[in-house]
Amino acid sequence: MRTDPLALLDxxxxxxxxxxxxxxxxxxxxxxxxxxxVADWYERGAAPVRQLAVAxxxxxxxxxxxxxxxxAGGSAVAYGLACFExxxxxSGVRSLVSVQGSLAMYAIWRYGSxxxxxxxxxxxxxGEWIGCFGLTEADHGSDPASMATRATPVDGGGxxxxxxxxxxxxxxxxxxxxxxxxxxxxxxxxxxxxxRPGVGVREVTGKLxxxxxxTGELTFDDVLLEADALxxxxxxxxxxxxxxxxxxxGIVWGALGAAYDCLTATLRYAATRTQFxxxxxxxxxxxxxxxxxxxxxxxGFLLALHxxxxxxxxxxxxxxVSAGKLNNVREALAIARQCRxxxxxxxxxxxxxLMRHANNLESVLTYEGTSEIHQLVLGQELTGxxxxx
Length: 389
Known about the structure:
Butyryl-CoA Dehydrogenase, subunit A, domain 3, three-stranded mixed beta sheet, 51% helix
């Protein structure tokens, strides 16, 4: 590999010293703790999630864009670069950090009481406690407004929680869940310790994607919660959707990390793999593929960086995040698939990261809003007409 794909447009010059330092720190973490083992984690369908959480907590990566309560208070761009490097290792590792920081921790930080913040956030920032985010249900994926989970007030204060959540990242190893449920006042959020009587946790097995990530189902069979389990500032469906916007922003960057890892691995392979008496890198069709992929990667990086600058200026809107996720995940998946073709049969081998990234990106394409949902978000933004109903 003669030139790094992101060096063609000198994109590194657009970052400041602190942003580059964050990127380099996370890149070292991935090199030391993820790359040597991730192929085996994927093969076995298991990863040392708790150890990874502590390692990320020690480096200030959990809730790193939040301020106070043990959180690092980093910039949106620095957080995005961290997601890029984590997902270059594996989408499951970035998902661990995203769900912990941008979903579970953000929900408590943004909508919780001062007592809830002090109780939960420092331990979560350190990786001592793992959280998950219970919004999706088995029968209600893209339509969270139709959720069936309910929380009913009980005499003397408190709540009785009934229902279930599905496809919940971190659930099998989590200590607490932020659960969204219908109440007499509309959709509300609750902090639910997962050791409560009536809580059931089942790991989802047999996955062909995100195998280095812990995914589970949560069930709530008349779980009794104290009154202070309620997130007092979360009112209506806009609250969990705002959390999803936080997580989607990380995906805008993270998907590019997977694409970058595929492209750099393929460039190295093509430089040494000989066919018909010359390296694969010397063929016109191969170079055309590399050129197109490098252009899309750089365009995606510029888009992510622009959204990050908007976020740091307090001007990022949800529809803009939808544009970023729609484009960058779609293009990252296309890059992973194209890289696989250059490696031929070797592209499906676990010795190379291409098929693992491609399989992971199929899940990333779906979660935090499918491509179709983001197309409709943008369609509504452009036309003023909602096509959701």
